[in-house]
Amino acid sequence: MTGPAVRVRDERGIGVVEIDHPPVNALARPVRAALLEAIERLAEDPAVRAIVIHGCGRHFIAGADVREFDAPPAPPLLHELLNRLEALDKPVIAALHGTTLGGGAELALASHYRCATPDLSLGFPEIKLGLLPGAGGTVRLPRLVGIRRALELMTSGTPIGIAAARELGLVDHELRGDVLAGALAFARERVAAGTPPRRTTDLPMPVPESPAVFDEARTALSAAARRVPASEAIIAAVEAAAARPWREALAVARERFDACRRSTESRALRHLFFAERVPAPGGAPQPVATVGIVGAGTMGSGIAIAAATAGLEVTLVDTQAAALAAGLERIARHFTDVHRKGRLDAAAAAAAGARVRGAATLAALAPVDLVIEAVFESLEVKRAVFAELGRTCRPGAVLATNTSTLDVDAIAAASDRPADVVGMHFFSPAHVMRLLEIVRGRDTTPAVLATAFALGKRLGKIGVVVGNGFGFVGNRMLYAYGREKELMMLEGASPTEIDRALEAFGMAMGPNAVGDLAGLDVGYAVRRAWTDRPDDPRFYRVSDLLVEHGRLGQKNGRGFYRYEPGARRGTSDPEVEALIRAEAERLGIARRAIGAEEIVERCTLALIGEGIRLLEEGIAARASDVDLVWCHGYGFPRERGGPMFHADTLGLAHVLDRIRHYASACGPRYWTPAASLEQLAARGARLADEASTGAT
Ligand code: 3HC
After folding, report:
1. Is the pTM of this model over 0.70?
2. Beta-sheet strand order (sheet of 121-123)
3. What is the pLDDT of residues 479-491, one digit of tens each?
4. Ligand 1 center to residue 66 CA distance, Å?
5. Residue 1 confidence class, pLDDT cut points 50, 70, 90
6. Is CB count within 10 Å lower at the N or C end of the chain?
7. Which of 102, 53, 113, 45 is nearest to 79 (CA)?
8. Which of 35, 47, 63, 40 is nearest to 11 (CA)?
9. Which residue's CA lies nearest to atom 53 of ligand 1?
């Protein structure tokens, strides 16, 4: 024994090092220290002829311990440990299985031989945390798989399975059955054959596949990847490996790693990594095997696809025969497509499709465990559905509404069993988007909330529990963000200028392009039904104006932009600019040029201000929940960590200062700082450090 996390034993001449550090065998400092001690001991033991490294549990090693990256690395450093491992003069065999990621994959590359079971998932996901493989991956991987492939693996972060790993020569031998028994047998064969250590860094660096291989890698980066400095750092580190002796190149990689570790982008991505592992709310979830979905439109069929893919039996109800047929057809087409694209084999796709049955009346939902209502966004319509669900569904069944803005308590009251009712706000397309806002109503029981959360997890969603209030977290913030861009269009910014500025900031799509995609009439209808919307003739006036002129967005080829048939991106339309100009004149608004900086600042400060109010009111429990909602539901750039993390990056005192600036420049109506912002800024606090309000 060298410590609880690492065990060493001698199996008839083979030294076995077992890493047992649940949940994922991350290479935390005590594990590194114990590993170093273990390999030194085995190196000195004359009875040991070879060494096998094994990870206990479901994972080999999931990488370095991400929690340690907020501080400078503490010895023993992982790259030094791996250099020592590689230098041993007894063969070292990595017994790979399951997840072998980041520093775990680098440990495998520093081992002399690698064998693996078919469940292997090997990869370099550091880029997703804004990092580069910093423990030798950038010098060893290209020597094994070539420069181009190494760059692809490290800049994408996508893991590979056993077949690709074998083809690339990363795995020497595929194991069947027990990983440790197989690796021991492999080690004995090496010993019997007298095979010497085979060090990756002894291999020559391969000749670049093309003289421009590094520039090609740079060109291939997406816009989002380019915004993360680690992408360039990976390419530069491999470029150094191609040009210099490996130890010098490793020093370059170390320097780059440390700079990336300290970058805002990496801190933001690490923040999201931990935020995404949202703790489940208290309460014991009820088992769910059958799900009913009411409404076979785009949202209802998307939810049905997600549920059937997760193995649930689905009854899809629509009282309109044509809508039901169209929904079922959409679902069938989806499962044919996923099979055609190779994402599901024929039998699995057919089985998933067969799990969805259509029905014409709510009576079909009498026996199901949970119902998700996804009908038209109207309180009256939804209340009618819940009145019937309350009578029809079996006692104890959970009744969820997919409303995006309406009062969950008002919907729940209609069911006459509000304790069973919860909001489950999916985002479209529901089988693709990972965000799920789970709305706790006034009477929702902990068990019902826990059931909705567990179901979300089963559907692969990131569930965020929010309080009941207009627009919950996401859409309420969207209204603040949208309000500013609408005002700025009246004040002189064009729709294109707004979208360009926010896309350059990193938003996946500009807000006007999003409006056109969603359909401008959708928001128009919501605003008409919104009884206490701001009494301001400028509020969303541009969007309303476009709808009133028959411009509904992509669906009729005319919205903020003009769309040629089949085109996804629109072109600016002088007619829109003229309409806005005339409206500004009618409202007596003086127009001026508005720069990209102001566009971004007003929109992001509006988001931040509203997010802070949601925290203050307890509609959102944690700043990180707000970040999850905006990064996963609204395309906020991940490398900025979400609006609340961005506020902390700017500094709350600066945020307050700029909000006060706009209060005097634009008037206090929308720019009065939240009381909690003033308090937090005064004591130099960060939103991320504030304890959960627990109020939701
Ligand atoms: N460091 C610290 N904690 C980690 C971790 C890591 N590398 N990987 C996972 N964890 C923690 C999670 O935070 C979670 O903690 P919690 O239970 O307190 O919420 C717990 O382990 C279980 O993780 P998941 O809930 O994600 O479990 P899954 O089974 O769904 O997924 C996984 C397992 C695929 C390993 C996934 O956790 C994962 O992708 N982890 C990150 C892997 C990674 O990015 N590795 C690279 C690290 S950077 C590096 O190695 C740098 C090197 O080059 C020097």
Report:
1. yes
2. 59-61, 99-101, 121-123
3. 999 999 999 999 9
4. 7
5. very low
6. N
7. 102
8. 47
9. 133
Mapping DSSP onto H, E and C, the string for 119-156 reads CCEEECHHHHHCCCCCCCHHHHHHHHHCHHHHHHHHHH
Domain 475-689 is in which class? mainly alpha
Annotated active-site residue 40? The verdict is no
**Catalytic annotation present for 43:** no
103 is catalytic: yes
Question: Could you report the per-residue pLDDT of 319-377, keeping only the tens digit for each?
Answer: 999 999 999 999 999 999 998 898 888 899 999 999 999 999 999 999 999 999 999 98
Instruction: Determine the Cα–Cα distance for residues 465 and 450; give it in Å rounded to an integer.
Output: 10
> What are the sequence ranges of the domains in the chain?
6-262, 290-472, 475-689
In this structure, whether the domain defined by 290-472 belongs to CATH 3.40.50.720 is answered with yes
CA angle, residues 617, 618, 620, in degrees to nearest 5: 115
pLDDT digits (tens, 9 = 90+) for 239-287: 999 999 999 999 999 999 999 999 999 999 999 999 999 889 988 999 9
Q: Note the pLDDT of residue 692.
A: 64
Tell me which of 126, 265, 437, 497 is the catalytic residue. Answer: 126
Residue 586 has pLDDT above 90, yes or no: yes
- Is 126 annotated in the active site? yes
Residue type, 479: Y
Atom of ligand 1 nearest to the CA of 273: 13
User: Which residue's CA is the closest to the ligand 1 atom numbered 19?
Assistant: 277
Give the burial string for 180-205 (b: 16+ CB within 10 Å, else e): bebbbebbbebeeeeeebebbbeeeb
The token duo for 325 is 């047929």
Q: Count, in order, helices (H) and strands (E) of the chain.
A: 29, 19
> What's the CATH fold of domain 6-262?
2-enoyl-CoA Hydratase; Chain A, domain 1 (3.90.226)
CA of 91 to the centre of ligand 1 (A): 29
Pairing of strands 370-373, 290-294: parallel
